[in-house]
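step 3/5: co-fold with zinc ion
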Amino acid sequence: MNPAQILMTAGLCLIAVAPAKADLRVASLSTITTDLAYQVGRGHMTIDAIIKPGIDPHEFEPTPSDVKKVADANLVLLTGKGMEGYLSKLEEAAGGSGKFLNVGKTIPSLTMTEDGKRMEDPHWWHSVENMKTATRVVAEAFENADPLNAPSYEKNASTYLASLDDLERWIRLQVAALPHDKRKLVTSHDALQYFAHDYGFTIYPVKGVTTAEDPSSQHVKEIIGVIKNQGVKAVFFESIENPRAVQQISDETGTKTGGTLYSDGLGDHEGNTYDSMMRHNVSFIVEGLK
Ligand SMILES: [Zn+2]
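step 4/5: write tokens
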């Protein structure tokens, strides 16, 4: 037996006698945190995606089988800022709030007014800077929950942070091609405030922060006025939203539709990672508004 073979045999013996250690079980209440968990934790955990692509997180209610997955998890990731209206009920049903990691909590909030009430805007991931903060928060939580694999989480997080830097540079380069007076975004609901804040856009949402209510005809008239007065070149659908109101505005103004944006979460095929979602949105926005 050569030395390498001896080492290999010794290694295999060690694995054989070590007590079986279960992987970390992570449940995720957003497609955004599911991708983040995969990027940072890959190889060391089982990830239960409770909210899958195409599900509206504003309207979601956990089923009994979701509650079981959450109860079985070591760590539960959520985006926070009021997105999970069912949270306190779920915490209670799944045995307490201790293992819930509110990833959005340390991220500074933009606010919005809806029905006269001031509220936090929950769509923080449309800022890459915020996604970088979220990456650090998730990596630290994984390291604390599973110290044995901490070096791996640290390495994955720094690789991912570097890719987010690349993404940010790419977005700034794309947006730079769009003159400031063309950075006007008409979207289905008020989800792109963090994006607008970082990249110098003004947004004119057809609906408010949640996706529940139809817009008033008065509000639709106002949006039509904005499009006509400001020469807005395109209006956008959203993947999870009913296209009716935006289609009506497009028809009435003769403005083209600039495609479908991912606002409340990732897509199924295209836009199925955070990186590809952002690249998809930015490409459509810049191309549509040129
Ligand atoms: Zn939304």
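step 5/5: annotate
Residues 21-169 form a domain with the Rossmann fold fold (CATH 3.40.50.1980).
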